[in-house]
Amino acid sequence: MKLGAENKNKMIWLAVLGPIAILVFAYQVLPEFIGSSSAPNSSAQAAAPAPAAPRPNARSGRGKKVYTENLDPTLKLDLLASSEKTIYEGNGRNIFMSHSEDAIPTPKGNGATDKPVVPPYVTLAPPQAPPIPLKFFGFASKPGEPKKIFLQQNDDIFVAGEGEIVNRRYKIVRISPTSVQIQDMVGSGPPQNVPLTQG
């Protein structure tokens, strides 16, 4: 019973380690056979001069021949000078596009279509405030008291002196014998003169 279990464990280890050993052996041996027959890299061929005829140098223990290439490290100035003088002459095609672009027509003029129209200089007058709808038609002052006036708006009559507010909107700024100066507190604009109306 014990003996069969040991054999079973050995068989499992052999089944696991056997393929690993085969892969390691192939990894070590196969590159030597494949590397001698593979073609050199094409970019290395373009950059380096053609290799000299291979000559056997030494033999390794496994029978592989070792070759040395004749690499010339000399800088060839004539080849460099000829490549520097090369001028790219394109054919007009955009190399970054897969299809050809439509030809752009050459403009015939300077691009201006019409003569610019200069608007005439217009001086804008400041906005006029609407006229104050009060009528000044008389005085209501007594001797020794501040001067007061009568103002009418439609059917309403107001009695006010300087500095007072009429109809919750109009301030009496100054009273003169022929007119009264009134400021609209809601609207904008300077004070307006309302003349004395006769009759």
How are the elements arranged and paired?
Elements (H helix, E strand, L loop, with lengths): L1 H36 L4 H6 L10 E2 L5 E2 L10 H8 L50 E5 L8 E6 L2 E6 L3 E2 L3 E6 L3 E6 L7 E4 L4
Antiparallel strand pairs: 1-2, 3-4, 4-5, 6-7, 7-8, 8-9
Uncertain segments = 38-49, 56-61
**Helical proportion?**
25-40%
Query: What is the element string, with H for helices and E for strands?
Result: HHEEHEEEEEEE
Structural category:
alpha+beta
Strand order of the largest sheet: 6-7-8-9
Radius of gyration, whole Å: 56 Å
| Cα separation of the termini | 144 Å
Number of strands: 9
Q: What form results from the Cα inertia axes?
A: elongated
| Main pleated-sheet profile | 4 strands, antiparallel
Content of β-strand: 15-25%
Q: Helical stretch count?
A: 3
Mean pLDDT reading: 76
3D structure, described in words:
By secondary structure, the protein is of the alpha+beta class. Among the domains are: 2-66, no CATH class; 135-195, no CATH class. It is 25% helix and 20% strand. It has 3 helices and 9 strands, in the order ααββαβββββββ. The chain has helices at 2-37, 42-47, 77-84; strands spanning 58-59, 65-66, 135-139, 148-153, 156-161, 165-166, 170-175, 179-184, 192-195. Strands 6-7-8-9 form a 4-stranded antiparallel beta sheet, with no helix packed on it. It has a 3-stranded antiparallel beta sheet with strand order 3-4-5, with no helix packed on it. A hairpin with a 7-residue loop joins strand 8 (179-184) and strand 9 (192-195). The longest helix is centred in the N-terminal third of the chain and has 36 residues, at 2-37. The protein is elongated, with a radius of gyration of 56 Å. The termini are far apart. Mean pLDDT is 76; it is low at 38-49 and 56-61.
